[in-house]
Amino acid sequence: MALFMDGPVSSMEDLTAQDSQLLDVAQVENIDVTQKLALAQDELAVELDTLLMRFSYTGQPFWYTAPPRIATVVVTPPLRMWHTFRALEMVYADAYNSQLADRYAGKRDQFHDRAQWAYGKLVEAGLGVASDPIPRAGMPQVTSAGGALPDGTYYITMAWMNRAGEEGAGAVPAVVTIAGSTLSVQPGKPPLNATGWKVYLGGAPDNMVQQNSSPIAVGGTWLQPNQAVAAGPAPGSGQVPNYLRPAARVIQRG
Predict the structure, then answer these.
(1) Containing H/E element for 182?
(2) Distance of alpha carbon 65 from its chain centroid, rounded?
(3) Radius of gyration (C-alpha) of the chain in whole angstroms
(4) pLDDT digits over 56-111, tens only?
(5) 53: number of CA atoms within 13 Å, CB side?
């Protein structure tokens, strides 16, 4: 899972999994689906702020005294589905407004109902909350350094850790090709609550493996040994909720 503020909650693949005709409709009607994903996320942010203000304190852990903020919200399955269906609803609303075609109105209404259903499930289950949210890392700076890592193209990502050892979502991987050298990895600016970081490396985006055996210091740089670790943990998708925040039942607008 990832934090709501880490980036788009759902992807184009999530949308096409729900509607196989999406890309064809978007092309014919000249609709920017990426823009709809962003607009849907903006709308969800407003709705989430409203939910956070209305939350009951029932079930709140005794050690958690600060009210949750949107920066603490974790993307759970109901939240991802809500975003997916809302974005699809927006696509078909745009298509209908352009052509006034009933087939688009039907799809618009279908995904509106699905979005309402997902919202209801989110309220029923509660919002996932991270007690000490650690945001997604920015792309690390990777440069060549003296050494003899096998020549080739490498994908490198990193993730911040908080004081509880929880790991945030990994950065968009950096891609480098080396010959007769190794790699030096330098992260960007750390979040205030970061206590260390991990580095992952591999020959492809889907086979990156953790290279450090213990957390790297926040101000530290990673010098890749000449032999890459070939088996081990892969980058995670981010934090899981520490608890679910119960929500008062309210009727969503629309």
Answers:
(1) strand 182-186
(2) 26
(3) 21
(4) 444 455 445 556 789 999 999 999 999 999 999 999 999 998 878 888 999 999 99
(5) 7
Q: Long-range CB contacts (< 8 A, 24+ apart) of 172-176? A: 172/139, 173/139, 173/205, 173/208, 174/139, 174/140, 174/141, 174/142, 176/142, 176/144
In sequence order, which ranges of the chain are alpha helices (DSSP H)?
12-18, 22-29, 33-54, 77-99, 102-125
Identify the pLDDT of residue 253: 52
| Per-residue pLDDT tens over the stretch 17-42 | 999 999 999 999 999 999 999 999 99
**Token pair in block for residue 79:** 């939240």
Q: Taking Cα atoms as reference points, which of 172, 173, 166, 164 lies closest to residue 239?
A: 166
Q: What is the pLDDT of residue 55?
A: 62
Distance CA 139, CA 186 (A): 9
Residue 158 confidence (pLDDT): 97
Q: Which two tokens stand for residue 242?
A: 């520490």
Tokens standing for residue 90 = 């927006």
- Token pair recorded at residue 76: 């759970």
The answer to whether 248 touches 55, Cβ cutoff 8 Å, is yes
How many secondary structure helices (H) and strands (E) does the chain include? Answer: 5, 10
Q: pLDDT (tens digit, 9 = 90+) per residue, 190-212?
A: 999 999 999 999 999 999 999 99
Q: Identify whether the C-beta of residue 227 lies closer than 8 Å to the C-beta of residue 211.
A: no
